């Protein structure tokens, strides 16, 4: 064998009791599991790794990642590798970089600069989903990646940024693009239904696309229409849509935010339990924090985004349109802000593209406005225009009770939703998985260690239909993480968000060490993980 890990406490991902064993690896797969006290010879190899009683688990799967360009920009990718993540699902929230043409690529790059940077340092040598996945495979990365066809990007390619129903030909074009993405290896389709132009799609339009996804054995992953006012109704719409289309449903960052939803996490779970009891195939992911993270432009009303980023900037240059935008955001409650009137003291600037705006980073818009003797909207308007919509924010609108309630549900998985480019990104990008293991499992006891590992491994692998990942079994991929259950902890904070975790000394991808003794190696063993054919 290539490697034997000796004396490990195997937490195998099933949720069952852990056990002591030696685990042998050969050709990138688990080749032998020899339990303590079992008969027969122990596995041997030229290289051994003494676990010393550390927990050995399958590699963690990040079900909601925004590393679409980060994997190409910085293949080292310690933000995720150091957490024990060995697979990320990207193409999230309905906006990513494939499929595109020259026109739509430029528009998408502008629209999500706040998520991933403007991409000026990237060679965009792909246009299709398959070509993007091929690029990952040629370059190699620290971790594996699976891709969701982004519905908003598909809509841009088929019909631009128009706020109207598609024609028959446009709908046929969208269905063809989704089918091509699935054929090229995507595992499903995502939507961002509080982001333009994805939010312009009706339930009927989305159901047509979901039928295509279901035919290929994929799943639908919506960022649904509201996490604030009307959140429960928005969840119910997605459940009914998936039922109508016969498509498995995975709810992205499924929480209940804003004041109207305090303490209502159980209401969401009751809705899902009823649907599951009737046969619905539903899973969800969450991050273990209360604030959210997105772009300042995402707070705008949907009508302000019609026509694309340049049209939005033109509206912001028009005093009458700007006044209308302000009224919608501050009085009515913009659909971009989940139907809730915006509270500027909850909006913290986490990153800017224009260097002259850096003094705003790390402060709320309300604080910056008070310091300057201005109205908060004036500060927000200045940022949107000067930064050309590229400003990233944290939005402090979550509820800890809801976070704890939802994470304990049997269909729950973990997703960091981490944006990596901002000057002060959300610490979830660097801390999600050790935070589940340390703070919520060990310290608070909300989940046993075995349950917590199952949430991070076998459950997401099952959703992704990956028969050889997510469990420690002979023949499975040797994507493995060794961690200390007593010391594992997130160290990333809102003041120091890029601090790497503690207590995770070893991470293997396909049996090769990407983290050794707590340090990143130069191994780039990650590749694209493509849809398993039906």
TrEMBL record:
Keywords: Hydrolase. It holds the Pfam family Amidohydro_3. One of its GO terms (cellular component) is cytosol. Residues 48-515 form the Amidohydrolase domain. It is an enzyme of class 3 (hydrolase). This is N-acyl-D-amino-acid deacylase. InterPro entries: Amidohydro_3, D-aminoacylase_insert_dom_sf, Metal-dep_hydrolase_composite, Metal_Hydrolase, Metallo-dep_Hydrolases_sf. SUPFAM superfamilies: Composite domain of metallo-dependent hydrolases, Metallo-dependent hydrolases. Its EC number is 3.5.1.81.
């Amino acid at each position: 064998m290539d490697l034997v890990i000796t004396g490990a406490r195997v937490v195998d991902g099933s949720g069952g009791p852990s056990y002591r064993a030696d685990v042998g690896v050969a050709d990138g797969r688990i080749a032998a599991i020899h339990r303590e006290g079992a008969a027969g010879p122990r596995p041997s190899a030229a290289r051994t790794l003494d676990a010393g009683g550390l927990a050995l688990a399958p590699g963690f799967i990040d079900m909601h990642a925004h590393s679409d360009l980060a994997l190409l920009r910085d293949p080292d990718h310690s933000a995720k590798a150091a957490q024990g993540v060995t697979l990320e699902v990207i193409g999230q929230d309905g906006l990513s970089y494939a499929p595109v043409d020259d026109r739509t690529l430029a528009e998408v790059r502008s629209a999500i600069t706040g998520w991933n940077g403007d991409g000026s340092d990237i060679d965009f040598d792909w246009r299709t989903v398959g070509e993007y996945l091929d690029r990952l495979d040629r370059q190699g990365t620290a971790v594996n990646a699976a891709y969701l066809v982004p519905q908003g990007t598909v809509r841009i390619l088929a019909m631009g940024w128009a706020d109207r129903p598609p024609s028959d030909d446009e709908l046929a074009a969208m269905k063809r693009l989704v089918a091509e993405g699935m054929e090229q290896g995507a595992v499903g389709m995502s939507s961002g239904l509080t982001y333009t132009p994805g939010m312009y799609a009706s339930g009927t339009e989305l159901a047509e696309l979901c039928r295509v996804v279901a035919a290929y054995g994929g799943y639908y992953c919506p960022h649904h229409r509201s996490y604030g006012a009307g959140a429960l109704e928005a969840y119910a719409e997605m459940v009914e849509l998936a039922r109508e289309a016969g498509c498995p449903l995975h709810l992205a960052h499924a929480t209940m935010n804003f004041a109207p939803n305090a303490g209502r996490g159980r209401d969401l779970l009751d809705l899902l339990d009823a649907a599951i009891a009737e046969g619905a195939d539903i899973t969800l992911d969450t991050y273990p924090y209360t604030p959210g993270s997105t772009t300042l432009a995402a707070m705008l009303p949907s009508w302000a985004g019609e026509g694309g980023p340049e049209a939005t900037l033109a509206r912001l240059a028009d005093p009458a349109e700007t006044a209308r935008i302000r009224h919608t955001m501050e009085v009515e409650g913009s659909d971009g802000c989940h139907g809730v009137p915006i509270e500027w003291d909850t909006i913290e600037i986490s990153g800017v593209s224009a260097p002259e705006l850096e003094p705003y980073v790390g402060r709320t818009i309300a604080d910056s406005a008070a310091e300057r003797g201005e109205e908060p909207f004036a500060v927000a308007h200045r940022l949107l225009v000067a930064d050309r919509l590229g400003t990233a924010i944290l939005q402090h609108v979550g509820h800890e009770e809801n976070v704890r309630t939802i994470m304990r549900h049997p269909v729950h998985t973990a997703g960091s939703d981490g944006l990596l480019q901002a000057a002060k990104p959300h610490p979830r990008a660097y801390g999600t998985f050790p935070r589940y293991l340390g703070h919520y499992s060990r310290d608070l006891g909300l989940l046993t260690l075995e349950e917590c590992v199952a949430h991070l491994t076998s459950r997401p692998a099952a959703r992704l239909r990956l028969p050889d990942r997510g469990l420690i079994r002979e023949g499975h991929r040797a994507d493995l993480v060794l961690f200390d259950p007593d010391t594992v902890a997130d160290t990333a904070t809102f003041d120091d968000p890029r601090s790497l975790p503690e207590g995770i000394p070893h991470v293997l991808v396909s049996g090769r060490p990407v983290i050794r003794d707590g340090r990143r190696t130069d191994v780039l063993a990650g590749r694209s993980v493509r849809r398993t054919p039906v």
